[in-house]
Amino acid sequence: MRTPHSIIKSHIATEKSHIMRDRQNCYVFEVDGNANKIEIRHSIEELFNVKVKSVATMNVRGKMKRLGRFVGKRPNWKKAIVTLAKDQAISQLENV
Which residues of the chain have pLDDT under 50? Predict the structure, then answer.
């Protein structure tokens, strides 16, 4: 059994994620690539003590990057958009 800290890697703080948080009560996280929606839901509820309404996941492809004449690729990763219940909020992430 994986721990919630191993499933939820980090919070993604971008301009779009702040707009989603303000308008739709959604939070965006980078999660483990093997985690499913149920594991993500339980991890968020346990870590932040909130009620999750829905979870949407997507696999993000790593971008091709160049360093001079050498070409490399960033790793693929998984993103989860977590929608909370109407009166819920994650207070630790409000100032980020």
Answer: none
